[in-house]
UniProtKB/TrEMBL annotation:
Aspartate/glutamate/uridylate kinase domain sequence ranges: 7-85
Reactions that this protein is recorded to catalyse: L-aspartate + ATP = 4-phospho-L-aspartate + ADP
Listed InterPro entries: AceGlu_kinase-like_sf, Asp/Glu/Uridylate_kinase
Gene3D superfamilies per the UniProt record, alphabetical: Acetylglutamate kinase-like (3.40.1160.10)
Species this protein is from: Staphylococcus pasteuri_A
UniProt protein name: aspartate kinase
Amino acid sequence: HTDNAHGKARITSIDDHNIQAHLQQNKVVVIAGFQGRSPENHITTLGRGGSDTTAVAIAAALKADECQIYTDVDGVYTTDPRVEPK
């Protein structure tokens, strides 16, 4: 769930019941990033970086040890090289 701020919505909660149930059945779970649902059930979109935000929020909800994000940069980094170039 998100708040009502379409275009820059913030994730307010994640119901992980269905995700956990499918994972326990060894199923692959595909979750769309960058979007959510408001309290009124309207589709909302998150702001810039919303897909990464979704990935981290899902990982946190599942109590994952880590969240790996693969993107279109040269090499492997532990942080965004545009933010921390060293």
